[in-house]
Write a structure and sequence with these properties.
This protein is an alpha/beta fold. Helices cover 35% and strands 22% of the residues. The strands form four sheets. An eight-stranded parallel beta barrel has the order 1-2-3-13-14-15-16-17, surrounded by eight helices. Helix 4 links the parallel strand 13 and strand 14. The protein is elongated, with a radius of gyration of 24 Å.
Length: 495
């Protein structure tokens, strides 16, 4: 079982966490979802990682989500001699459009079709802006540059050209190959990089349907165009990632915190899960402790109501992946104990005309607060009912009960939701109440005498809106006897 916290933790897998035991340890420390970065590594490498995740999921009786993150039309440096080279401000280095391996004097930048758009005086930002080069002279196949900041240039590091607009689909040929492979590996979410409009999402969704994939779609917000089309992109997404690394070099850095808050508010109103990502605890790549500013950054995301916070290099290639997750979990749980938090979340009303399901979600949260309910059990076919409750940020844990394993894994990303995969066919209210009682009791969320609220849609076994709300008191032995008859389930919850 995993440690329970309302705000979810996403950890990127990489060399520092690439083993069954490491993945198991990360889950025990609080990871709810793993990110597989298809910008690096082979398909065989990623397939093994996902197999380990599924083994851990079974052993720990947990529900764990997996995100397949596509590279998109990302500029990157080619291979570098010795993997990385240190430069001082004032050093000269040439970027070549072709070559096998970069040297101190000449690095490979294999994006020749953009060379004619670059001119003298332009800035080239590398590794989320940690390194800056200034173009001295631009030719058709080479760029003479001067290093403006001390630091390392390494193989595969991302490159940003802020003055160039990418006039291309966010789904490249490489992405299509990676997407098909990711779906065959059973990922639960596909993260689409450098989304600029809803058309990018529609294209990816059409591809997923064409190969009969079940993965949900995440839009990564990294470009100014995405901010211009924000509402339309959120409306066509299953979740959103605020990718502050690329976004922070494409727009002025002082605007990023304001945009973060705006995006989280919009996503909450629309009931779309939102993730805050990039450099949340960057110093823990090399240090066993974060800076105070980083701790505040994580806390701010929690206060603003983000569904999840994400670790990138900290868990993928850093020296302290377990400590990074431990620290992030402690910060989250500390904020979630703050009595002020509930006021900070203030009920978010839908930005569309409320329907019956919205009314029930609001009623459930009011009941949970008034009666000090131990948990809210939400039966859901496609995940929508649980997301509606989660949008209100209630004081009680949400048990998202579903008969579909892939839906339960997708719910692992949603704020406050403890996914409960109930294999039994739902034919009566008891088939919902018993799994809810089992999850609440085994997860130490409730005990004899406690109450839980149950919501569902009737008639059972047929898709339809949530139209039922019921209070249930856990009465001890009789509940436990019934629970034994409903053992075919997997769930994730431990307080």
């Amino acid at each position: 079982m995993q440690t329970y916290h309302f705000t979810k933790i996403i950890a990127t897998l990489g060399p520092s966490s690439y083993s069954y035991e490491k993945i198991k340890s990360l889950v025990k420390r609080g990871v709810n979802v793993f990110r597989i970065n298809f910008s690096h590594g082979s398909h065989e490498y990623h397939k093994q990682a996902i197999e380990w995740v599924r083994q851990v999921e079974k052993e720990l009786e947990s529900i764990i989500g997996v995100i397949g993150d596509l590279q998109g039309p990302k500029f990157r440096l080619g291979p570098v001699e010795g993997e990385r080279i240190f430069y001082k401000a004032g050093d000269k280095v040439t970027l070549l459009s072709d070559g096998k391996i970069g040297t101190r004097e000449a690095l490979i930048f294999p994006h020749v079709k953009f060379f004619n758009k670059i001119k003298a005086g332009d800035k080239i930002l590398i590794d989320d802006g940690k390194m800056t080069l200034e173009v001295i002279q631009a030719e058709k196949t080479s760029l003479e540059t001067k290093v403006l900041t001390d630091g390392y240039l390494a193989s595969g590091k991302g490159v940003n050209l802020p003055h160039i607009k990418i006039m291309a689909s966010s789904l490249t040929n490489k992405d299509r190959i990676d997407l098909q492979a990711a779906l065959s590996m059973g990922v639960d979410y596909i993260a689409l990089s450098f989304v600029q409009s809803s058309q990018d999402l529609k294209e990816a969704r059409t591809f997923i349907k064409s190969v009969k994939g079940q993965a949900a779609l995440i839009a990564k917000l990294e470009k100014p165009a995405a901010i211009e089309n924000l509402d339309d992109i959120i409306d066509h997404s299953d979740a959103v990632i605020i990718a502050r690394g690329d976004l922070g070099v494409e727009i002025p850095c002082e605007e990023v915190p304001i945009l973060q808050r705006k995006i989280i508010q919009k996503c909450r109103k629309k009931g779309v899960p939102v993730v805050v990502a990039t450099q949340m605890m960057e110093s823990m790549v090399t240090s066993a402790r974060p800076t105070r500013a980083e701790a505040s950054d994580v806390a701010t995301a929690v206060y603003e109501g983000a569904d999840a916070v994400m670790l990138s290099a900290e868990s993928a290639s850093g020296d302290h992946p377990l400590e990074a997750v431990d620290t992030m979990r402690r910060i989250i749980m500390s904020v979630e104990r703050d009595p002020y938090l509930h006021k900070a979340y203030a009920t978010e009303r839908p930005d569309t005309q409320p329907n019956d399901e919205d009314a029930i979600s609001l009623a459930v949260c009011q009941i949970a607060e008034t009666l000090n309910i131990a948990a809210i059990a939400s039966f859901t076919e496609g995940g929508g009912a649980s997301k509606r409750v989660a949008r209100q940020r209630p004081l009680a844990p949400i048990l998202g009960i579903t008969p579909y394993l892939h839906i339960s894994r997708q719910l692992s990303l949603v704020w406050g939701v403890l996914p409960v995969y109930a294999k039994n066919t739902i034919t009566s209210l008891e088939d919902i109440i018993i799994p809810a009682c089992k999850a609440a009791i085994k997860g130490n969320l409730a005990q004899k005498g406690d109450k839980i609220v149950v919501t569902a849609g009737m008639p059972f076994g047929k898709p339809g809106p949530t139209n039922l709300l019921r209070l249930v008191r856990l009465n001890g032995s009789s509940n436990k006897e019934k629970i034994k008859k409903h053992e075919k389930m997997r769930f994730c919850c431990k307080k």
